[in-house]
User: What shape does this take?
Amino acid sequence: MPAYSNAEIAALAERLLDHTLPKAEWTHAAHLIATLRLVRTRDAGLERDLPAIIRTYNVAVGGVNDDQSGYHETITQAYLAAIRAFAAALPPGLDDAEAARRLLATPLGDKDWPLSHWSRERLFTPQARRGWVAPDLKPLEHTPAV
Assistant: This one.
């Protein structure tokens, strides 16, 4: 995975928020890094705000949010809870670039991380995409506040 500088991380989060991030740059790593940046800079209310941020971004870049694609509530809330716990354990004063490097080196950096907790049959249902669905394989270490 590419390394990101502090400036690139700040710009990534801002471009997500203002819908100028090119769709091709909205990778798994970008999802994680933008979420980490938001947790570290404006954590209050992200369980409520992050879904709208992602949904509106998807639409702005020509995507849709339906039962087959776009925003996924269960995946978003699971990653948000895990990233929040990860951020809380970081040493004070650690810069964004090093925090991102460390995050991407954890199991969360693997885009299939949710499948260690959910079966495909459960995770990729319309219900899991629309709302929180608890894991059926292994409990999460950090439970989302949904």
